[in-house]
Amino acid sequence: MRMKSPGLLAVALVAVVAAVAIGPTAAAGDMLVTAAKPDKLYVIDAAKRSVVSEFHIPNAGSLIMTIVPSPDGKVAYALVNRMESISGIDLKTGKEVFRADLSTPGERVKDFCAFTITPDGKELIVYELPTKLLPSEFQVQEPRFAVFKTNAGRSAKAIRTYPAPRRLHMMLMRPSGKSFYAIGFDLYEYDVATGKQLNSRGILKWDMPSHSQPDLLAFWPVTEPSGVFTSPVISDATTDGKTTMKTGLMSLDVTTDKLEFFDFEDTSALIFSTVLSPDRKWAYGVYSTLTKVDMEHHVLAGRVPLDHTFYSVNLATDGHEIYMGGAMCDVGFYDPVTLEKRANLKLPDCGDQSLASLRVLPAR
Q: Are 91 and 130 in contact (CB under 8 A)?
């Protein structure tokens, strides 16, 4: 066979080699949502590594915390105003289309990071910690879940409430829309319509022989892109009379209800948050290092130091890029195979993201 255009062949070969060297990057169309002090919400084009929208949240106070996108990806709901308000921002116009101010003149209400949205996008369920403000004393009230209609506008009031346990810090909706998880000292499940507790099981009550009670820091309600929530857990494990601090992983499949725990290393690095790959073969965790965990063999698969601390980690919808944010004013883009840094995007005005959730919105 004769080659009529060796020059074109050489160009094509160079292109193929370059593509292999670079590897797959962010999924086309992935948008990231994050926030920074004191009141900014950002939409980022992951593939272009650029901020496409910068919005101001009214009366946000000095910190934006948990971010929960609507199921259609059109609105981002954010915990603001010293944990006393939920603000819904239209991600196309930047307008505030929903507002629930939880406190009243006679009652101060805090939401400690935990709220979720039903799969049809019609209701928000918020964890409330109320305190009555009396003339001579403050009276701590029992915690509750409060349900709000998302179409209630900027003066939303709860349409129903039901009792909640203390010491919750995160909520996750199940895809059926019939129940939700509340995560704290234990893992609870509640009926959306009635508030009836359906289940309570291991975190403190976990079934890990020869292990102490676990400790976990679960403030980032990320189940994208796998449909599984994961969190690092730390405990003491005793074998043959010797006690060793272990780092493990909790995984909760919000569809099947499957809950698992396993250790993957003797504790050597602090990990704040983790995310599971779409094929469920790998988990990635961040703090001052980027950690990769082999989910099949339950072992540490890799670790690299980071430029600085990151709190929140997420993944491209196709699993081909790691995103990380939180703590400071930049978003990192890393290779999930080699763990090498691909890019770094600094947010405008370099506001601190702190505990803000880094969420991924797939292309619509």
A: no
pLDDT of residue 218: 87
Q: pLDDT band at residue 13, thresholds of 50, 70 and 90?
A: very low
**pTM exceeds 0.85, yes or no:** yes
CA 279 from chain centre, in angstroms, equals 18
Strands in 178-317 per DSSP E: 179-184, 187-191, 197-201, 228-239, 242-253, 259-266, 271-276, 282-287, 289-294, 299-305, 312-315
Q: Map tokens 């507002």 to a residue.
A: 99
> Which 8-state DSSP code applies to residue 347?
P
Q: How far apart are CA 269 and CA 265, in angstroms?
A: 10
Give the type of residue at 254: V
For residue 220 the two structure tokens come to 């980032």
Asked if 358 and 312 count as a contact pair (C-beta separation under 8 A), the reply is yes
The Cα–Cα gap between 16 and 18 comes to: 5
Sequence-distant (≥ 6) Cβ neighbours of residue 94 within 8 angstroms: 41, 53, 55, 56
Residue 37: φ, ψ to 5° = -60, 150
Position 14 pLDDT exceeds 80: no
What's the CA dihedral at 169, 175, 176, 180 to 10 degrees? 0
CA neighbor of 177 nearest in space, from 72, 86, 254, 77: 254
Count CA atoms closer than 13 A to 116's CA, side-chain side.
Answer: 27
pLDDT tens, 103-145? 999 999 999 999 999 999 999 999 999 999 999 999 999 999 9
Q: Which two tokens stand for residue 244?
A: 């060793």
Q: How far is CA 59 from CA 37, 78, 182, in A?
A: 12, 12, 27
Q: Letter for the amino acid at 131?
A: T
Amino acid identity, position 236: D
Secondary structure, 3-state, 225-246: CCCEEEEEEEEEEEECCEEEEE
Burial of 256 (0-12, 13-18, 19+ CB in 10 A): exposed
